[in-house]
Design brief:
Blueprint lengths: L1 E5 L4 H10 L7 H22 L11 E7 L4 E6 L6 H7 L7 H9 L23 E9 L8 E5 L4 E6 L6 E8 L9 H12 L5 E4 L2 E2 L16 H11 L8 E7 L5 E7 L13 E5 L2 E4 L14 E5 L5 E2 L4 E2 L3 H24 L1 H21 L1 H7 L4 E4 L4 E3 H8 L10 E6 L6 H9 L4 E3 L5 H11 L3 E5 L5 H4 L12 H15 L4 E6 L8 E4 L2 H11 L13 E6 L3 H8 L3 H18 L5 H13 L2
Parallel strand pairs: 2-8, 12-14, 19-20, 19-21, 22-24
Antiparallel strand pairs: 1-6, 2-3, 3-7, 4-5, 4-7, 5-6, 8-9, 10-11, 11-14, 12-13, 15-16, 17-18, 17-20, 23-24
């Protein structure tokens, strides 16, 4: 038998190829060919299980080998095999998917999801690296004759009889000069481990099996222990700190989705995530760029997602947004929120301990995903400066009596740096106020989101204004200084500060408060913080301005007002102002040096 002919390319087939399967990464060829070999193996197993093939299955594994001298790479399987007619049907008609036809034929007889073949054009990826490709195949059908197909990458092919003892297919790639990098053992091994680490059929390379055909996510969660999950995490991310907990995904309707998502300890900063979520399709690795499958905040998690229902753009292994993807995204978000609820309800104390490590993740989710906000807002915790945790509702109820202003708004006071803002915190505590610790890098965004969602609550940083003005109950203390004394004090401070970005005002405050405090407008400061943390606040680029609030009822300020010697008055005002600036880390450079020398000289 010998036949020559032209490969059939039809417009109805070529356009989907151009749209979906234009490869740019040449190493994909090995994923595609090995996946096809696994596919053929799964098919023979399926036919055997339903009684359509009664022969001996034998050892079912896919073998990958290479010959550096001959410049060949061979992928061999003992799968379903092909007759000469099937080769012409499946290989010569580009983009005709044998897997699709097989699934359609046997869809009512079992688990068609065991067939990988959604890669369509996979075989022809071989010509990205090969100048010539051979197929030697023998069908599982009784009495079949082996066939040999060869093509040099043009539309011409040759098919003839061949000698092959065993059922299955050998794909032999004659590697082109510009692709000889793939004739290195390390290169091939790294590709196989990247894409085939969890393929459902054993992959042999260099006399070793390089994959785990039964990864944890394919097994029944009821049969697994915590130790199993931790061991698998080590397999995915060697030498990493143990995760806090995990979610096992297992859905077969209305879409197929399996996987395991791990919650790592998330530090109080966004780092480049090297340990990303890995996306698989029937155990074939696709990508670790999963931004179109999971919401952005879930990309802080680790683990594996496997779904045959995610459409793939193989040219860059990116994902297209369609209804299935949206359903899968929604399901993952719900499962994560449900897991958090379960942990909260089962062990509140344990949940609080974990919140230090997952709080950033939860807040990010509330900010960035509306559905997650609705599901998780009731189990998001905040912590006060004494270390006590509250849900948002619990905290609102706890401060309602003491921290409601004249407009009936509940004021949430918070600190971003407990050590730096200690003086303000202690002053607030003397009034019976509670202060929250909000020191993560996204808390300014988080606070804005909560204010937007609840118009009855206003957040104020504890050092953003004079204490009596932070929670304005309408009761103002009178300033004991006369108007003339107030003018003297104000002009003296403006003179020694000599800085238009420092705005001086005199307020009636308790005599126990500091003589002067430096604050920054809450809104403007938040805008600046958001800008620094990657936000696009329209006011973020404006120069910072500060309010210097002078306590008109403090004995030292009263002393300054009565001082007739201008030089002494200025010196006292300078000392008060410098102390206030120092408390906010705003006294720097030459001004700080002068302050230190001045105080040393007075010892």
């Amino acid at each position: 038998m010998k036949e020559t002919g032209n490969i059939s390319i039809h417009t109805e087939n070529i356009f989907p190829i151009i749209k979906k399967f234009l490869y740019s990464d040449h190493e994909i060829f090995l994923r595609e060919l090995v996946s096809n070999a696994v596919d053929a193996t799964q098919k023979i197993k399926r036919l055997n299980s339903i009684g359509e093939f009664s022969g001996e299955l034998g050892e079912l594994k896919v073998k990958v080998s290479f010959d550096k001298e001959a410049k060949t790479i061979t992928i061999s399987d003992k799968g379903i095999g092909m007759t000469a007619e099937e080769i012409k049907k499946y290989i010569n008609q580009i983009a005709f998917s044998g897997a699709t036809e097989f699934v359609e034929k046997y869809k009512d007889k079992g688990d068609e999801q065991a067939i990988i073949g959604h890669f369509g054009l996979g075989f022809y990826s071989a010509f990205m690296v090969a100048k010539e490709v051979e197929i030697i195949s023998k069908s599982h059908q009784e009495g079949s004759e082996a066939a040999r197909w060869i093509c040099d990458g043009s539309t011409q092919f040759e098919i003839s009889s061949a000698e092959k003892a065993d059922r299955g297919t050998d794909i032999i790639l004659h590697i082109a000069e510009d692709s000889e990098e793939f004739l290195e053992e390390f290169r091939l091994k790294s590709i196989l481990e990247k894409y085939g680490k969890f393929l459902p059929v054993e992959i042999e390379f260099g006399d070793k099996i390089i994959n785990n055909p039964s990864p944890l996510w394919t097994r029944n969660p009821a049969d697994l222990t915590d130790e199993d999950y931790l061991k698998f995490y080590d397999e995915l991310y060697p030498f990493q700190e143990k995760p806090l907990f995990w979610i096992h995904l297992n859905v077969d309707y209305p879409f197929n989705l399996t996987g395991i998502l791990y919650f790592p300890k998330i530090k109080n900063e966004f780092q480049v995530q090297k340990e990303k979520i890995q996306l698989y399709s029937r155990q074939v690795f696709i990508t670790d760029e999963v931004k179109d499958v999971v919401p952005e905040f879930l990309m802080l998690l680790h683990g594996v997602i496997d779904s045959p229902d995610i459409p793939l753009n193989v040219s860059r292994s990116f994902l297209q947004s369609d209804s299935n993807v949206k359903k899968i995204t929604g399901h993952i978000t719900k499962k994560v929120a449900d897991k958090l609820h379960d942990l909260y309800k089962a062990d509140r104390a344990g949940y609080e301990e974990k919140f230090d490590n997952i709080g950033l993740f939860v807040k990010y989710g509330l900010i960035s995903d509306e559905k997650f906000y609705e599901r998780a807002k009731d189990i998001c915790l905040v912590q006060d400066t004494d270390g006590k945790y509250f849900t948002l509702q619990e905290y609102e109820e706890s401060i309602q009596a003491a921290q409601t202003d004249k407009d009936n708004k509940k004021i949430f006071l918070y600190a971003t740096d407990i050590q730096q803002q200690d003086a303000f915190i202690q002053s607030a505590k003397t009034k019976g106020y509670s202060i929250l610790k909000m020191d993560s890098m996204i808390d300014s965004h988080f606070i804005n989101q909560l204010e937007y969602k609840n118009q009855d609550i206003q957040w104020k940083r504890v050092d953003s204004d004079a204490l009596d003005k932070l929670i304005d109950t309408g009761n103002k203390l009178e300033i004991l200084l006369s108007k003339k004394q107030q003018e003297v004090v104000k002009s003296t401070f403006e003179s020694v500060l000599a800085d238009p970005s420092k705005v001086v005002a005199i307020e009636g405050m308790s005599a126990e408060e500091l003589p002067a405090i430096v604050t920054q407008n809450e809104f403007m400061r938040r805008m600046n913080e958001m800008q620094k943390n990657g936000g696009n606040g329209m006011f973020g680029g404006m120069p910072a301005t500060y309010n210097i609030t002078i306590n008109g009822n403090h004995p030292v300020v009263e002393k300054l007002a009565k001082e007739s010697d201008e030089e002494k008055r200025n010196a006292l005002a300078k000392q008060i102002a410098d102390l206030a600036l120092l408390s906010q880390n705003l006294l720097t450079g030459a001004e700080l040096t002068a302050f230190i020398k001045r105080n040393v000289n007075e010892l």
